[in-house]
């Protein structure tokens, strides 16, 4: 109570000041009378009168500077006393400030008796020009002000018809009147009572603190995801190292049996390869004289005794989700697409991620099997750039997983819409990147390869790769990798034969590109198409061997060996006849591939939630919680079995993410390739042939014969320069026999992909 009495006079004065400001005249009289009766002291409100007198002085100084053409004094006072929130955000203030700058720029032209001082005039014009290029640039799109942007460059504005109005006698008085009204309004608003000021400042402070905490939370979540990715990358590298070490130990043990090195030396080598934590126990417990003991222990170290249980994510109401994805606002659609993608990309690899994907597939999240006029898949054609991009990201995330590709491949309209989006998308680079990434992963499946070749996608790729410096790293890598995958097929090689010159020119130019990530794919494509005699003849005519030998001088050892294979293919005289086994049979079982969830899927998010707005998993579990829509089914994992020499160019379909990671997914201990992307530091080690990346359904033949001329060629009618999206004439329809009829999550039989050598340094 003592504190209240100590400040009672000031508090009562604040109340009186507010009542006076709000013009509560009767209330103010009653309040003052009651305070007098009760003997309550009222503090004098001298502060208000002082502010009023000070405001009047400032207004007079501003008007005087306007009349005198004193530009520096005026704008110093203007920036000091007119709040920046008004100057920067109020449209009337911005327009008035623009005309005030014009007033001072032409002041000498209007008020000089003779010729104005050139130096002073040039200084004013320069000041105006600087304003136009900085703060005034915001009004450059407004028709009202557009002509005045030419004012600094007109030699004599007084006679120019566009500026006739500025030099009329009425223009300056009208501008002065607008200025006085504006100042009166601003300074009246600035004389708000202290009680109101305290309330507003306190509320604004709380709002700013809340926003700051919210932003800190977002940053903390982002850092947490980054650290998780780093942890998974280290974990994946560790497993790669142990796997390679096991191979090395097998070789060393074989030499031990030939008495070339001693078991003691082998033991010391193996112990040095282990972590400090494992050295002592293994050094004392493993009998390295028994064949297979060391490699068995190494491989056993990869399989933990008991994995930490990872809870399944809550079930969702997919009917409500799909309804809002189709009929909701664009902002809601974007947040839902983002949240659904994050469920895939941030879920724990293994049962948790598999259950998420199986729920998506089982509930036909993308409406791949829907025949309705409006479907979720049509968001790829949305008018909203954000919705299109986020839909493309989600499809790319689906395509990153083998079961996701199987789901998408069962509908011909998915490939058709992606090809159309790829052709039409020229506004958003990220959208095109994700569409291209999805198509490249589609090319791991043979029926989809056939459809893309039939649709003439090779011609589009050749055209875009003519100017690789204009492409992002992602677009370049996935374009070249897609081209290579399509060129591995006989139909793709025959398509390239129609435009042999441009194809060879593009690939030879890419050999010297600064992005070394693409070199294995360029080499693989060259090696493949040079199996066609007509392309070999074209390559010899353009001096391809000399071009290749230039890169032999500059390349590293692994790249040199690959180029030597290409030169050998170039100089081959072998004629492939049509009786050889064709690689174009579609009815073979497709194999499970690595799940390559690259980090690029979540880069550069376009939308951020506002204060109080739900997003991510919180949005899904708050608004779309369902009952028993998750059904956990374990997928069978298998290791790759087909191997390829690390010296040879790639001859089997591959995806850049899988090529960079190149490690096995061990049964019961899955690892996320998304977390294991190597740093692009120019050091590009070769992948061990023991753990090659896998693809889906390629033929393991070493050479791929062309289709004989007697056999029906589905690409024969496509001409270079035409790019026909699926769904138009020549639509690629996938027979049911081409896609295994399997329940989601039941798994696919595995056929392995061989690895090529590492990327050049």
From TrEMBL:
<dbReference type="GO" id="GO:0060271">
    <property type="term" value="P:cilium assembly"/>
</dbReference>
<dbReference type="Pfam" id="PF21051">
    <property type="entry name" value="ARMC9_LisH"/>
</dbReference>
<dbReference type="InterPro" id="IPR040369">
    <property type="entry name" value="ARMC9"/>
</dbReference>
<dbReference type="InterPro" id="IPR016024">
    <property type="entry name" value="ARM-type_fold"/>
</dbReference>
<feature type="region of interest" description="Disordered">
    <location>
        <begin position="582"/>
        <end position="604"/>
    </location>
</feature>
<dbReference type="InterPro" id="IPR048959">
    <property type="entry name" value="ARMC9_ARM_dom"/>
</dbReference>
<dbReference type="InterPro" id="IPR048957">
    <property type="entry name" value="ARMC9_LisH"/>
</dbReference>
<feature type="coiled-coil region">
    <location>
        <begin position="408"/>
        <end position="435"/>
    </location>
</feature>
<feature type="region of interest" description="Disordered">
    <location>
        <begin position="636"/>
        <end position="761"/>
    </location>
</feature>
<keyword id="KW-0206">Cytoskeleton</keyword>
<keyword id="KW-0175">Coiled coil</keyword>
<dbReference type="GO" id="GO:0036064">
    <property type="term" value="C:ciliary basal body"/>
</dbReference>
<dbReference type="InterPro" id="IPR056327">
    <property type="entry name" value="ARMC9_CTLH-like_dom"/>
</dbReference>
<keyword id="KW-0963">Cytoplasm</keyword>
<feature type="compositionally biased region" description="Acidic residues">
    <location>
        <begin position="582"/>
        <end position="603"/>
    </location>
</feature>
<feature type="compositionally biased region" description="Polar residues">
    <location>
        <begin position="738"/>
        <end position="749"/>
    </location>
</feature>
<dbReference type="GO" id="GO:0005814">
    <property type="term" value="C:centriole"/>
</dbReference>
<dbReference type="Pfam" id="PF21050">
    <property type="entry name" value="ARMC9_ARM"/>
</dbReference>
<dbReference type="InterPro" id="IPR011989">
    <property type="entry name" value="ARM-like"/>
</dbReference>
<protein>
    <recommendedName>
        <fullName>LisH domain-containing protein ARMC9</fullName>
    </recommendedName>
</protein>
<feature type="domain" description="LisH">
    <location>
        <begin position="452"/>
        <end position="571"/>
    </location>
</feature>
<dbReference type="GO" id="GO:0097542">
    <property type="term" value="C:ciliary tip"/>
</dbReference>
<feature type="domain" description="ARMC9 CTLH-like">
    <location>
        <begin position="57"/>
        <end position="188"/>
    </location>
</feature>
<dbReference type="Pfam" id="PF23138">
    <property type="entry name" value="CTLH_Armc9"/>
</dbReference>
<dbReference type="InterPro" id="IPR006594">
    <property type="entry name" value="LisH"/>
</dbReference>
<keyword id="KW-0966">Cell projection</keyword>
<keyword id="KW-0970">Cilium biogenesis/degradation</keyword>
<comment type="subunit">
    <text>Interacts with TOGARAM1, CCDC66, CEP104, CSPP1 and CEP290. Interacts with NDUFAF2.</text>
</comment>
């Amino acid at each position: 109570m003592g504190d209240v009495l100590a400040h009672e006079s000031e508090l009562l004065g604040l109340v009186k000041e507010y009542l006076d400001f709000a013009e509560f005249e009767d209330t103010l009289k009653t309040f003052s009378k009651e305070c007098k009766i009760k003997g309550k002291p009222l503090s004098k409100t001298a502060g208000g009168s002082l502010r009023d007198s000070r405001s009047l002085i400032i207004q007079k100084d501003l008007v005087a500077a306007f009349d005198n053409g004193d530009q520096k004094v005026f704008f110093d006072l203007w920036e000091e006393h007119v709040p920046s929130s008004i100057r920067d955000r109020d449209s009337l203030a911005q327009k008035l400030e623009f005309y005030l700058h014009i007033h001072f720029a032409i002041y000498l032209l209007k008020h000089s008796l003779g010729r104005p001082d050139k130096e002073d005039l040039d200084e004013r014009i320069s000041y105006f020009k600087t304003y136009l290029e900085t703060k005034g640039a915001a009004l450059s799109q407004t028709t009202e002000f557009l002509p005045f942007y030419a004012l600094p460059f007109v030699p004599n504005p007084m006679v120019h018809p566009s500026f006739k109005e500025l030099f009329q006698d009425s223009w300056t008085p009208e501008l002065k009147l607008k200025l006085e009204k504006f100042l009166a309004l601003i300074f009246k608003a600035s004389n708000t009572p202290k009680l109101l000021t305290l309330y507003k400042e306190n509320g604004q402070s709380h709002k700013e603190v809340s926003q700051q905490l919210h932003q800190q939370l977002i940053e903390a979540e982002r850092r947490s995801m980054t650290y998780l990715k780093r942890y998974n990358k280290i974990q994946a590298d560790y497993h790669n190292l142990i796997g390679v070490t096991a191979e090395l130990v097998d070789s060393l043990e074989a030499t031990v049996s030939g008495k070339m090195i001693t078991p003691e030396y082998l033991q010391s080598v193996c112990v040095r390869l282990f972590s400090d934590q494992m050295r002592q126990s293994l050094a004392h417990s493993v009998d390295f004289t028994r064949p297979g003991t060391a490699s068995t222990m190494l491989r056993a170290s990869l399989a933990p005794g008991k994995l930490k249980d990872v809870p399944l994510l809550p079930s969702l109401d997919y009917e409500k989700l799909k309804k809002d994805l189709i009929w909701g606002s664009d902002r809601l659609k974007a947040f839902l697409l983002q949240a659904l993608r994050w469920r895939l990309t941030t879920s724990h690899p293994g049962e948790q991620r598999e259950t998420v994907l199986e729920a998506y597939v089982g509930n036909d999240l993308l409406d791949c099997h829907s025949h309705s006029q409006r479907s979720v898949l049509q968001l790829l054609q949305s008018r909203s750039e954000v919705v299109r991009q986020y839909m493309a990201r989600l499809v790319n995330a689906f395509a990153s997983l083998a079961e996701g590709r199987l789901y998408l491949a069962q509908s011909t309209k998915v490939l058709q819409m992606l090809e159309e989006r790829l052709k039409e998308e020229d506004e958003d680079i990220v959208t095109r990147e994700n569409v291209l990434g999805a198509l490249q992963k589609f090319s791991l499946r043979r029926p989809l390869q056939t459809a893309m070749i039939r649709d003439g996608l090779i011609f589009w790729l050749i055209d875009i790769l003519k100017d690789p410096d204009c492409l992002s790293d992602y677009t370049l890598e996935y374009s070249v990798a897609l081209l290579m995958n399509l060129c591995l097929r006989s139909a793709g090689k025959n398509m390239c034969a129609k435009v042999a010159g441009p194809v060879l020119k593009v690939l030879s130019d890419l050999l010297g590109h600064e992005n070394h990530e693409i070199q294995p794919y360029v080499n693989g494509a060259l090696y493949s198409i040079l199996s066609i005699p007509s392309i070999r003849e074209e390559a010899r005519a353009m001096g391809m061997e000399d071009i290749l030998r230039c890169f032999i001088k500059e390349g590293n050892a692994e790249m040199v060996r690959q180029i030597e294979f290409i030169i050998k293919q170039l100089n081959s005289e072998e004629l492939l006849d049509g009786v050889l086994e064709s690689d174009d049979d579609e009815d073979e079982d497709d194999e499970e591939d690595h799940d390559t969830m690259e980090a690029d899927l979540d880069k550069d998010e376009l939308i951020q939630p506002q204060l109080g707005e739900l997003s991510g998993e919180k949005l899904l579990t708050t608004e779309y919680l369902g009952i028993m829509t998750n059904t956990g089914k374990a997928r069978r994992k298998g290791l790759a079995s087909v191997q390829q020499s690390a010296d040879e160019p790639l001859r089997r379909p591959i995806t850049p993410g899988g090529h960079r990671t190149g490690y096995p997914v061990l049964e019961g201990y899955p690892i996320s390739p998304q977390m294991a992307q190597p740093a692009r530091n120019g050091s590009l080690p070769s992948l061990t042939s023991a753990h090659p990346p896998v693809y889906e359904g390629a033929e393991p033949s070493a050479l791929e014969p062309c289709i004989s001329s007697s056999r029906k060629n589905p690409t024969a009618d496509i001409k270079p320069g035409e790019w026909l999206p699926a769904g138009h004439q020549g639509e690629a329809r996938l027979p049911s026999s081409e896609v295994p009829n399997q329940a989601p999550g039941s798994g696919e039989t595995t056929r392995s992909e061989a690895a090529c050598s590492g990327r050049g340094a």
